[in-house]
Structures are given as C-alpha cells and as structure tokens.
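Hi again,

Forgot to attach this to my earlier email, sorry! This is the prediction with adenosine-5'-triphosphate bound. I've pasted everything inline since the attachment limit keeps bouncing my files.
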Amino acid sequence: MIKSILSRNAGETLRIGEIIGRCLTTGDIVALIGDLGTGKTCLTQGMARGLGVSDSYAVASPTFTLINEYPGRHVLYHLDVYRLTGSKDLEEMGYEEYFYGRGVSVIEWAEKIVDIIPETAITISFTYLDENSRRIEISAPDKRLEEISSALSEGGF
Ligand SMILES: Nc1ncnc2c1ncn2[C@@H]1O[C@H](COP(=O)(O)OP(=O)(O)OP(=O)(O)O)[C@@H](O)[C@H]1O
Ligand SMILES: [Mg+2]
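Structure tokens for the complex follow:
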C-alpha cells in the first residue's frame, strides 16, 4: 500500500512532515528518496517539529558530518548520505547504534544505502511536479501506513 499526497508548496511539506513526525516513535527509520531540491530536508524540518525538537534548532542537511542529532520527544538522528557511494562508510561508523537505538533515524538519499534499510522502515519518495508542487508517496508496514494516512487525512491531506 502507498499513500500518495500532493504538496502545493514548501509550507505544506512542512505541515505534512509535522503530522508524520507526531506519529513517529522510538526505533523508527524514515528513508527519504528523491532528487536534489525535491523537499527531503523541508519534510525533515517538519518531522523535527512533530517530534518536539525545539525551534531554536535550525535543522539542515548534515552535509559535512553525515549525521546531526536533535533532542526531542525521541532523539532525531538526521542523516544525509548523498556523498556516500554505498553503505560501507556507514558500517564503519557503526550506524546500528542509530538505526537500532531508541531514537528516530531520518535518512536523506536513502536509495544509496537500500541494502541496510530494514523492511519495517517508512519510505517517503518525492517527485518534482513544478516549481512549487511535489508528489509525496509514503509506504510503510500496513498498520503504520494506516496510522500515518489517517493522521494526514485529519490534517487535511
Ligand atoms: N511543495 C514543496 N515542498 C518542498 N519544498 C518545496 C516545495 N515547493 C518548493 N519547494 C522548494 O524546494 C526546495 C526544497 O529544498 P530541500 O532542501 O528541502 O530539498 P532536498 O530534497 O533536501 O534537497 P537535497 O537533495 O539538496 O538535500 C526549497 O527551496 C523549497 O522552498
Ligand atoms: Mg536535503
């Protein structure tokens, strides 16, 4: 099953992220897939808000550090693996501590490390439609997807 939604501007993507963020819980892995500038970081900023990360943190892609960590209702580990060629570098840095720890892991460019993304992950794909619109497609194990879909519907998406 896939939940497909249309975001008509960056503000909507933030709100979609916030709603999803409120549904996230300890141990969740969110794999973000999509081309440059399609809204992965924007959605992550919304998820941070939904996870209760303080607005005093400016959530941005962890380009030089690979991973940023933000305290919230659950710790948010924000990874951006754009510069990696595969999962080997992550294995060397002990990614299991994040993926299988108590926080929530959100990974931009997750398609680069598909071999270590578990089947239980929530996968969110972005497609550029025009300057302001994006198609956002969410897939997850049935129960999680139902929960997220109904929260999104209640929020008007
Ligand atoms: N509907 C939309 N949702 C999200 N972003 C949008 C939307 N419409 C326009 N934008 C713009 O697209 C850009 C998305 O940037 P963002 O950094 O979130 O992309 P990204 O997928 O993380 O890119 P990168 O691959 O470089 O990390 C922003 O400048 C934002 O204002
Ligand atoms: Mg980004």
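The mean pLDDT is 95. The helical segments are 10-23, 40-50, 88-92, 96-99, 142-154.

That should be everything now.

G.
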